[in-house]
Structures are given as structure tokens and as C-alpha cells.
Amino acid sequence: MLLDAGDRRPTLAQTAWQSRVAARCGAPADRLKKERVVPISFVLDLADEAATARLAEQVAARARRGDVIALAGPLGSGKTSFARAFIRALGASTEEVPSPTFTLVEVYAFAAGPTVWHFDLFRLRQPEEALELGIEEAFAEAISLIEWPERLGPLLPAEHLRIELAPGRSSEARVVTLTASPSWAPRLAGLMSDG
Ligand SMILES: Nc1ncnc2c1ncn2[C@@H]1O[C@H](COP(=O)(O)OP(=O)(O)OP(=O)(O)O)[C@@H](O)[C@H]1O
Ligand SMILES: [Mg+2]
């Protein structure tokens, strides 16, 4: 399902939908209304890890400098798997993409295109610790992939793409919910149907 974000006056249905998105994102619906943010949200079934990688490649092809991509979902849901495929799609070789479980951040520079900062904030004790990792530089200059984005609290920019992974019908399957803020919404057209 793809909702049209063109008309910024929310309809009743959109308002109800915003409440559902707000409930999922932890953002109060009245705040979304006040900021005139009408995110779009849709759900995809990912049959296996290859499907997760294909989604990551398609998002990578649409990403640009300054983007923030929040990778949400429980332990083992596939956030690092998604990030790995995203980073490889931009040119990193297989061995070069460790999970930042302990380092909290890994930085990838490419011959062309913006740097990618891959964060795993599970071990962050308070949001301000992310400033010591240089997260403001990442927001300004790079593409930020952020596992455990909830740990950032108010430091997570409102303008971001949220990719939430959840268990699917089998051990290999995942259900992914994408929630796009305005700059992302038009870029997601044709996702998972154009390659
Ligand atoms: N459809 C799928 N998408 C992603 N990963 C899958 C899928 N099916 C199976 N897997 C497996 O699930 C595991 C996902 O692990 P991964 O480290 O990516 O999770 P995570 O969400 O980053 O966990 P953590 O919260 O500990 O960082 C991997 O072992 C991967 O092979
Ligand atoms: Mg991980």
C-alpha cells in the first residue's frame, strides 16, 4: 500500500493512519500533525535473506548525502544483514563489512559517492554519547545507517527513512515496514518491482 503524500492536509483516513504510524514510531500523532509531516508507510514480505539484500540494494541506489536510514527490529531480525547488503551495493567487498556491535560505528568511504556511517547503538547508554561518535558529521556529510535508532531519542532527525524488520512466517522470512518522511516518499516508488 502506498499513500499519496502530495496533499499535505490529512484526511480522516490519513489521520487515523498517522496515529497507527505514530504508535509504531513512538511519535505522538499531534506532533506529526503540527510538523505537517505526512509520512508514507508500506509493508513488504521478504521471503529470505536474498530478498532483504535486494531491498537494501534498491534503497542504496536511491540514497544520497545527508540521508538517515533507521534500521529497527528485534535482535537477529536482519538489520546488519540489510546494512551489509546496502554497503556492498555501494562498492565495499565482503570482508570489509563487520557488524559494529562493539565499535558502535564503522565508516565506509567509496571512490565515488558519499561516505556511509554504519551505527549499532544497542550499547549506547544515553543519546548524547552518539555525539562523541561524530553522528552530527554523519548526518551532515554522509549516509547514516542506524541500528537501534530508538537509542538516539530526540537526536534522531525527523527526516529519515525507517525500515523496521519483523519475523515472518518462516525462519528465513521477514516482514518489513518502510516509513518514509517527505524527502524519501517520492524515491520509494517502484521499490521491489524494478529489479
Ligand atoms: N530474510 C532475512 N533477512 C535478514 N536476515 C535473515 C533473513 N533470514 C535469515 N536471516 C538471518 O538472520 C540473522 C540476522 O542477523 P543480523 O545480525 O542481521 O540481525 P540484527 O537485526 O542486526 O541483530 P542485532 O540486533 O543483534 O544487531 C542472520 O543470521 C541472517 O543470516
Ligand atoms: Mg546488528
Please specify the SSE layout and strand pairing.
Layout: H1 12-25, H2 29-34, E1 40-46, H3 49-62, E2 68-72, H4 79-89, E3 105-108, E4 116-120, H5 129-132, H6 135-141, E5 143-147, E6 161-167, E7 174-180
Parallel strand pairs: 2-5, 2-6, 4-5
Antiparallel strand pairs: 1-7, 3-4, 6-7
The chain binds adenosine-5'-triphosphate and magnesium ion.
Give a count of the beta strands, DSSP E runs of length 2 or more.
7
- Give the strand line-up of the largest sheet: 1-7-6-2-5-4-3
Strand percentage: 15-25%
Main sheet properties = 7 strands, mixed
Which regions contain 5 or more consecutive residues with pLDDT less than 50?
1-27
CATH names the topology of the largest domain as Rossmann fold
Number of separate helices: 6
Coarse structural class: alpha/beta
Distance between the termini: 19 Å
Cα Rg: 16 Å
Short recap of the structure:
The protein has 195 residues and is an alpha/beta fold. It has helices at residues 12-25, 29-34, 49-62, 79-89, 129-132, 135-141, and strands at 40-46, 68-72, 105-108, 116-120, 143-147, 161-167, 174-180.
